[in-house]
Specification:
Blueprint (H helix, E strand, L loop, with lengths): L6 H5 L15 H5 L4 H4 L1 E4 L3 E5 L9 E5 L11 H22 L3 E5 L16 E6 L6 H5 L9 H14 L3
């Protein structure tokens, strides 16, 4: 399998340079100032947005991210927490319509030791799962097979998001 998009992640080249607490180098803070198709933003809310993961575990792997640069779930204000969860619920509905997954992994990694690649900016993962999607490739080859380009996935999910009620 040829998965060149994973190499920058494996080498650590995709990690933000500079102070991770500096919003000017935070990829989530930078993304909100780019066009949606370039940043792979699927939908924008008032306080949070949904974006495709650049290094997905599965096709359609979405992140829900607050606009405010905060590191911890406990830093969310009540209005942010409400929209954060509403966007997570909406992401599940959209992925069900667009991709018909059999299940989901949903979670937050708080801190680098918990697996957070970008620990300085809170984000929640919504990973669609299908029966048999964990086979020998991730176990032996340390490679995931994605059947669709990220830009095509973004276009599909953005269209479905717009067409799916909240």
């Amino acid at each position: 399998m040829w998965t060149p998009h994973r190499l920058p992640y494996i080498r650590g080249e995709a990690k933000p340079a500079g102070d991770p607490n500096d919003p000017s180098v935070c990829p989530f803070c930078v993304a909100v100032n780019q066009p949606d198709d370039e940043a792979l933003v699927v939908a924008r809310g008032t306080l949070v947005y949904a974006v495709l993961n650049l290094f997905p575990y599965n096709a359609g792997h979405l992140l829900v991210v607050p606009y405010r640069h905060i590191p911890d779930l406990t830093d969310l204000r009540a209005d942010e927490a409400a929209e954060f969860m509403a966007f997570t619920q909406r992401a599940v509905r959209v992925l069900r319509v667009a991709s018909n997954p059999h299940g989901f992994n949903i979670g937050i990694n708080l801190g680098p030791v918990a697996g957070a690649g970008i620990a300085a900016h809170l984000h929640q993962h919504i990973v669609p799962r299908w029966g048999g999607d964990t086979n020998f490739m991730p176990v032996i080859g340390r490679t995931r097979v994605l059947p669709q380009l990220l830009r095509d996935t973004r276009e599909l999910l953005a269209k479905t998001w717009a067409e799916t009620s909240a």
